[in-house]
Specification:
It contains five helices and twelve strands. The protein has 225 residues and is α+β, with helices and mostly antiparallel strands. The protein folds into two domains: 148 residues, Structural Genomics Hypothetical 15.5 Kd Protein In mrcA-pckA Intergenic Region, Chain A; 58 residues, no CATH class. The strands form three sheets. Strands 6-5-7-8-3-4-9 form a seven-stranded antiparallel sheet, with helices on both faces. A three-stranded antiparallel sheet has the order 11-10-12. β1 and β2 form a beta hairpin. The structure holds zinc ion (4 copies). One zinc ion binds next to α2. The site of one zinc ion has 8 residues, from α5.
């Protein structure tokens, strides 16, 4: 896959565009975030965790979220499935230490698990597996910014793709090229229509997820709330 350029995303509080690492630092001091925190009324006071989430194999895909300490790992599993992963209801698990590490029950509370520096691995689908790293980078005490367990603070912008035929911006991916040739062939609308491959259906729209093209995943890669 041709996704090497450092991806960037916007801080939801102030709109500044930065890299994943830049946001990790910025979110600690963003004045607009501090203002939102000072007005937060959404729920009970608790420990709130700034989690940096990234695809284990492609650094282009990442999220910064704030998660309620009172919530459970199952809430994070649900969030990851909705925004990135869900194709056909596969099993998933969290562990410390990757594939060989001990599985952590989905019922485990976030604040019994995380402290800054702790990193978990999430695996979705034990066949064509997606692997996600979840690292706690900060913690605060206070009220959440939402009535949901997870608040999205930033995510990578859709990786840019060029049409394999003409070089213009691409919005489509050929699944047959991927499965039969192992080639990541992205296409503009015109060339998607003209592309001769349809053994796996017409080319599918590119979406902002590291699972695109794996198993039956086709998006939509939208946050659940
Ligand atoms: Zn900001
Ligand atoms: Zn599947
Ligand atoms: Zn084209
Ligand atoms: Zn093709």
């Amino acid at each position: 896959m041709t996704r090497s350029k450092q991806s960037r995303g916007d801080c939801v509080f102030c709109g500044r565009e930065m890299t994943k690492g830049g946001l990790s630092r910025h979110l600690k001091t963003c004045p607009q975030r501090q203002e939102a925190i000072s007005k937060a009324q959404a729920g009970k006071k608790q420990r709130l965790y700034h989690l940096q989430i990234q695809d284990a194999w492609s650094s282009a895909f990442w999220l910064h979220v704030e998660m309620n300490g009172n919530a459970a790992l199952s809430d994070l599993d649900y969030y990851l499935r909705e925004i990135w992963l869900e194709c056909c209801g596969h099993f998933s698990q969290f562990s410390v230490g990757g594939w060989s590490g001990d599985e952590i029950p989905m019922s485990r509370k976030i604040d019994h698990l995380f402290e800054p520096g702790v990193e978990l691995t999430h695996i979705y689908d034990f066949g064509t597996s997606s692997e996600t790293l979840v690292k706690a980078v900060d913690v605060r005490e206070g009220r959440p910014l939402t009535r949901y367990p997870v608040y999205l603070m930033a995510r990578n912008k859709m990786p840019e793709a060029a049409c394999a035929e003409c070089g213009k911006p691409a919005g489509w991916l050929c699944v047959e090229c991927l499965i039969e040739e192992g080639e990541w062939t992205t296409l503009c609308e015109k060339h998607a229509e003209e592309h001769p491959h349809d053994d796996y259906g017409e080319p599918i729209p590119l979406v902002n997820s590291p699972r695109l093209g794996m198993c039956g995943y086709e998006g939509p890669a939208d946050p659940p709330y």
